[in-house]
């Protein structure tokens, strides 16, 4: 195992709902032609293999030139039954990966051009921070979401190593999180959140989210905290959360969740990176960026057949036969190889494996330890530290083309379990005594 003591602070960011091919598959196409990336292809046989059909119409991956929005409030479905239809498992346990369009019900959209957007991908011009990270740090092209399911089950896997649910619900079940684990072994941690944090949907965390200013702080404090404190005075593990599009919010959503585009997420990731490269923080930092699941967007890589059984007391019984769809992941640190690609088999629990190695003598939990995926540590490279990080590209012209930020508070219509969960969290905040004077959530409670 490498010398993990060289890493003093771990920063973990989980974005929303994009697949690897959708965000990074362009790297294997002209003009980049990166043969080291398992991305998309122009080979006719490849295109024929992964052609998706919708009402008899054939569709192949295509470049989207609009990173700013998606039409008609289009949010491709991605709960457990939807994912099964998208990857289309066969009796021989293969996955043709050809049901991404046909799995969309007509009440989501009956416009063929809109439905076809799940086959789209972005290039370097549409995703400049993706390109910057891929050029200067390490990407992972065999990182799969832990379950072929939606947001909540995968985020619970990433934060617990197991999930008591297989579809979104409100409220979230009370299950142990990595926050509890870190507390139990005496490792300091903090969440910097822009807007309502995800685990406001788990009732037991509401008092801490509202009133524990050491563990839950505004994202606005992130960069100043890193600039004004030495690494050993900062939390050992830092979680950063975007502004969720399904939550009541002020301004842009920054989580990349459709129907929003990815431009706001690109800006958010740039802001995180610019904070992390502050000295002396950078010299001993590891930034991990991943996505909870694919959000219904096409990816060609068949999920590995790794079984996940329902834990005792779970609200489902049928085990998952495989991992979920492949998602983007970036490792950004002095201790990675510049412009490299890791082909290690990873999923969200690979982060928990790494935390167990670094902070608990190699063990997170028996369940996580036994999961047949690698650890983040397998990707790190301490042989030639990147002591002078590259400067992020300016995004002024890129961002100038996006729609203006919404005025005032945006309250999403509570049409989905996730939207209802965030809406219920606002009610819970008020029940816990928070009001319009609350320093983080006041506008949402007015």
Kindly list the characteristics that best describe this protein.
446 residues; Alkaline Phosphatase, subunit A; alpha/beta; two-stranded antiparallel sheet; single chain
Write the layout of secondary structure elements.
Elements: E1 9-15, H1 20-23, H2 44-49, E2 52-54, E3 57-59, E4 62-63, H3 80-87, H4 112-115, E5 120-121, H5 128-136, E6 138-140, E7 143-144, H6 151-160, H7 178-185, E8 189-193, H8 206-211, E9 216-218, H9 222-228, E10 237-241, E11 249-250, H10 263-276, E12 285-291, E13 329-332, E14 340-342, E15 346-347, H11 349-359, H12 366-369, H13 396-400, E16 409-410, H14 417-431, H15 442-445
Parallel strand pairs: 1-10, 1-12, 4-5, 6-14, 7-15, 8-9, 8-10
Antiparallel strand pairs: 2-3, 6-13, 11-16, 12-13
Question: Could you describe the 3D structure shown?
Answer:
The chain has helices at about 20-25, 45-50, 80-85, 110-115, 130-135, 150-160, 180-185, 205-210, 220-230, 265-275, 350-360, 365-370, 395-400, 415-430, 440-445; strands at about 10-15, 50-55, 55-60, 60-65, 120, 140, 145, 190-195, 215-220, 235-240, 250, 285-290, 330, 340, 345, 410. With about 450 residues, the protein is α/β, with parallel strands linked by helices. The strands form five sheets. Strands 9-8-10-1-12-13-6-14 form an eight-stranded mixed β-sheet, sandwiched between helices. A two-stranded antiparallel sheet has the order 2-3. A two-stranded parallel ribbon has the order 4-5. The protein is globular.
- Round the Cα radius of gyration to an integer and report it: 21 Å
Q: Helical stretch count? A: 15
Mean pLDDT across every amino acid position? 95
CATH structural architecture of the domain at 4-27 and 124-400: 3-Layer(aba) Sandwich
Structural class: alpha/beta
The number of strands is: 16
List low-confidence stretches.
none
Q: What is the overall silhouette?
A: globular
Question: What's the name of the CATH homologous superfamily of the domain at 4-27 and 124-400?
Answer: Alkaline Phosphatase, subunit A
What is the class of the domain at 4-27 and 124-400 in the CATH system? Alpha Beta
The strand order across the widest sheet is 9-8-10-1-12-13-6-14
CATH level 3 topology of the domain at 4-27 and 124-400: Alkaline Phosphatase, subunit A
Q: In this structure, how is the largest beta sheet organized?
A: 8 strands, mixed
Distance N terminus to C terminus?
A: 52 Å
Work out the strand percent.
5-15%
Report helical residue fraction.
Answer: 25-40%
């Amino acid at each position: 195992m490498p010398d993990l003591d060289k890493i003093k602070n771990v920063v973990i960011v989980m974005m929303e709902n994009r697949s690897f091919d959708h965000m990074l598959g362009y790297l294997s196409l002209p003009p980049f032609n990166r043969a080291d990336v398992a991305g998309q292809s122009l080979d006719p046989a490849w295109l024929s293999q992964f052609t998706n059909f919708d009402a008899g119409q054939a569709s192949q991956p295509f470049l989207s030139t609009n990173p700013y929005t998606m039409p008609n409030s289009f949010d491709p479905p991605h709960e457990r039954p939807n994912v099964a239809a998208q990857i289309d498992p066969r009796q021989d346990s293969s996955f043709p990966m050809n049901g991404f369009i046909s799995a969309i019900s007509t009440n989501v959209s009956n416009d063929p051009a809109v439905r076809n957007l799940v086959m789209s991908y972005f290039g370097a011009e549409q995703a400049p921070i993706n390109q910057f990270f891929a050029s200067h740090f390490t990407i992972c092209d065999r990182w799969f979401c832990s379950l072929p399911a939606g947001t909540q089950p995968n985020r619970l896997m990433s934060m617990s190593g197991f999930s008591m649910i297989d579809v979104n619900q409100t409220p979230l079940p009370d299950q142990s999180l990595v926050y509890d684990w870190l507390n139990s072994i005496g490792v300091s941690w903090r969440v910097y959140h822009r807007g309502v944090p995800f685990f406001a949907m788990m009732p037991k965390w509401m008092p801490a989210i509202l009133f524990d200013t050491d563990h839950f702080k505004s994202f606005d404090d992130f960069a100043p905290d890193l600039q004004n404190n030495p690494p050993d005075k900062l939390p050992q593990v830092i979680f950063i959360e975007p502004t969720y599009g399904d939550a009541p919010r002020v301004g842009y959503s920054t989580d990349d969740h459709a129907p929003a585009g990815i431009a706001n997420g690109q800006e958010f990731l740039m802001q995180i990176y610019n904070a992390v490269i502050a000295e002396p923080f950078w010299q001993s930092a590891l930034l991990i960026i991943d996505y909870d699941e694919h959000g219904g967007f096409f990816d060609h890589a068949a999920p590995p057949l790794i079984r996940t059984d329902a834990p005792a007391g779970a609200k489902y019984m049928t085990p998952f036969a495989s991992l979920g769809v492949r998602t983007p992941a970036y490792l950004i640190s002095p201790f990675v190889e510049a412009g490299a690609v890791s082909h290690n088999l990873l999923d969200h629990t690979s982060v928990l494996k790494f935390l167990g190695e670094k902070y608990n003598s190699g063990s997170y939990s028996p369940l996580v330890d036994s999961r047949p995926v690698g650890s983040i540590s397998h990707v790190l490279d301490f042989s030639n530290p990147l002591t002078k990080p590259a400067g992020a590209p300016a995004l002024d012209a890129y961002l100038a083309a996006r729609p203006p930020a919404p005025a005032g508070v945006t309250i999403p219509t509570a049409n989905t379990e996730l939207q209802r969960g965030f809406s219920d969290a606002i009610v819970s905040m008020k029940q816990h005594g928070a009001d319009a004077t609350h320093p983080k959530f006041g506008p949402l409670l007015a």
